Amino acid sequence: MSRSSVIKLTINRFDGAVRLWLFDVVCASFFGVALLGLLLLLPIFWFEKFDVIPLMLSMFQVSVSISVAWQLNRLAATEWSILIPRYRGNLLFQAATLLILSFLICALISLVSGVDGSFTQLQLATAAGLIFIYLCLIKVQTYYWSVLLYLFLMSLSSLASQIPTEINIPLFVANGVLAWLLWQKANGNPWHPDARSVYLNAQEMGGVWLPGLKSNPQLAKFELWLHPVNFFMGPLLTILLLAMPVVTLVVAVLSSAIGGDIPALFLYTQFACVACSMVHWSRIHRWRAVESLYMLPGFDGKQGMRDAFNLGQVKLLILLVSMMGLVAAVISLFDPLITIGVWFHLVLSTLFGCGLILGVGSGCKNALQLSLLMLIIICQSVWISTSLGQISDGGEIWLWLSIDIILMVFSFVTLWWGSKKLWYGDFF
Q1: CA distances from 198 to 92, 204, 292, 392 (A)
Q2: Residues 6+ apart with CB under 8 A from 362
Q3: Burial level of 81, CB count in 10 A (0-12/13-18/19+)?
Q4: Which of 417, 205, 395 is nearest to 313 (CA)?
Q5: pLDDT per position in the chain (428 positions), as tens?
Q6: Angle between the 87-113 and 53-77 helix axes, to the nearest 10 degrees?
Q7: Rounded distance, CA 122 to CA 116, Å?
Q8: Is the pTM of this model over 0.90?
Q9: Which of 238, 232, 66 has its CA nearest to residue 145?
Q10: CA 255, 259, 260, 265: dihedral to nearest 10 degrees?
């Protein structure tokens, strides 16, 4: 086969790539997060904040991995894929190319930046992404836990610091073996009867699964109090709100008992931000249900529905911040690191993080714009981890608190702006 034939065959492998990867709303959302993480490297290099580079590169790699897992799940849900010539082969080739290119780009940036442990963190993030894709091929419901990959990024820095640099070569070989096993599994992965339900549920609920609870009068009153902000998510929001403080306290107690250093309150802020983002993720992906909400009694026209939804967002924000304050106060009883200053810092950080997400989410009109919410979550996690590290090293907490107050005011302005943009110009 001539060189021109090989080049033409390779180019043909990318037929339909734009439509497959950039026009699918879920896939485009994760690609948007990856692209934003890559674009953020420009100001990071400009201001020489090199410590954040490993997190941005890991976020890029993980986002690409989740996009690949999504497309492979979609392929398993598509019964007619075997009827279209080269459809399956082209998609697998495109997925492999994306994973390889993303790793090469991140590896090059990592080596150029010269940050200690950056390449190790990238390889760990790559391994986590490949394992996640492989598990999704074995059990399609694994995709519901995709949010855990982003939470795993928060512990990458401490994990990489405990691993010697000599481990990079074995890690690279291990990732190569994982990639080969993944390729073999993907080529033999048939149509799966549960893949379609995962595809539809992940589109509407942001890819998060939690067990259901039986209805009772107390929960019904609570859900009525939050209505209509929980209309599109259903009982999932209630389950999240009930589970977050319990899980946080259990993790904090276990960490204290075994003498570990698990940032339980840090995880709470992340889950609070994820819950707020899911409010608007489900609102946009269940856009057909907006008319059903509009037809319910109790709203004074479209403006009344907007006002009720905005009030529900304020109630949700107050509830999340109040729970954070209460849980942090309880943990401070047996954790001397949680001083009054750290308590205020965590509460204010949760307040402005959730406020920004609710405000920006209200202004989002499509799934691609929702990528901004993931960026806010990542930036807020960087803010908290950096500040707590500086405070534990003896830094002044009042400087961080003053910035918290400025960000809090900005989040209030964003929340007000979002209240004006919610369903603005929509006809239903």
Answers
A1: 20, 10, 24, 43
A2: 280, 310, 313, 415, 418, 419, 421, 422
A3: middle
A4: 417
A5: 566 666 777 777 777 788 878 777 777 777 777 777 777 777 777 766 677 788 888 888 998 998 899 888 888 887 777 777 788 888 899 999 999 999 999 999 988 887 888 888 899 999 999 999 999 888 888 887 787 787 777 677 777 777 887 888 899 999 999 999 999 888 877 777 777 777 776 665 555 554 455 556 777 788 888 888 888 877 778 878 888 888 888 888 877 777 666 678 888 888 888 889 888 888 887 766 777 777 777 777 778 888 888 999 999 999 999 999 999 999 888 888 888 988 999 999 999 999 999 999 898 887 677 777 877 887 887 788 788 878 877 777 888 899 999 999 999 999 999 988 888 776 55
A6: 170
A7: 12
A8: no
A9: 66
A10: 40
Place of tokens 């391994």: 127
| Strand (E) or helix (H) holding 355 | helix 340-363
Q: What is the Cα–Cα distance from 129 to 259, expressed in whole angstroms? A: 30
